Amino acid sequence: MIEDYLKDGESRMKKTVSKFKDDLKTLRTGRASVGLVENIKVDYYGTEMPLKQLATISTPEPMQILIQAWDRNAIPAIEKALQEANLGANPQTEGNVIRLILPPMTEERRRELAKSVGKMAEEMRIAIRAVRHDVKDAIEDLKDEGFSEDDVKRGLDKLQKLTDKYIDEINKLAKDKEDEIMSL
């Protein structure tokens, strides 16, 4: 029973870390990245679709993102979505290809992005602690169901180790991303 709670908690913590990784991909660093635009929602014939489902996205140069639309009719919608995404670059269209040339980031913008990484990391740490709190309450309730205090204590110790492991992973991801943003 305790193991089931721990497995559930670990699964939820893994999902939190996975979401954090996905969120970090959307932040711009010194280089162009496919992750910067691939999940931008495009209104395509009345349906909101991620850009990656409408086009091939690549980075032929360090400061350029190349988007090749599969349907020529989608280009105006893609351009509009890119402009609304406020990436700091205007899309340039050539046939069914859209180029985004990203300007170099200023020091001030780098600091802002590094701060936002810190805020995102704190939100994820809070989410992991909330999972720990839920599982901790569930394990402590097992005392009333006849589980020994030693079993409950061992379960809580394992839970704390899991929590520490995933918070450390969040911290490492955040530190790596901040370093990447701040490097020229």
Strand order of the largest sheet: 3-4-6-5
Q: How big a fraction of the residues is strand?
A: 15-25%
For this structure, the CATH topology of the largest domain is Topoisomerase I, Chain A, domain 4
Oligomer: single chain
Helix content: 55-70%
Order of helices and strands: HEEEEHEEHH
Largest sheet, described in full?
A: 4 strands, antiparallel
Q: Kindly state the mean pLDDT as a whole number? A: 89
Shape: elongated
- By DSSP (H or I, 4+ residues per run), the number of helices equals 4
CATH superfamily heading of the largest domain: Ribosome-recycling factor
Task: Please report the first level of CATH classification, the CATH class of the largest domain.
Answer: Mainly Alpha
What are the SSEs and their pairings?
Blueprint: H1 2-25, E1 41-44, E2 47-50, E3 55-61, E4 64-69, H2 75-84, E5 91-94, E6 97-101, H3 107-140, H4 149-182
Helix pairs in contact: 1-3, 1-4, 3-4
Word description of this protein:
By secondary structure, the protein is an alpha+beta fold. It has two domains: 2-25 and 106-182, Orthogonal Bundle (Topoisomerase I, Chain A, domain 4), CATH 1.10.132.20; 34-101, Gyrase A, domain 2, CATH 3.30.1360.40. The chain is 55% helix and 16% strand. It has four helices and six strands; from the N terminus they run αββββαββαα. It has helices spanning 2-25, 75-84, 107-140, 149-182, and strands at 41-44, 47-50, 55-61, 64-69, 91-94, 97-101. Strands 3-4-6-5 form a four-stranded antiparallel β-sheet, with helices on one face. It has a two-stranded antiparallel sheet with strand order 1-2. Strand 3 (55-61) and strand 4 form a beta hairpin. The protein starts with a helix and ends with a helix.
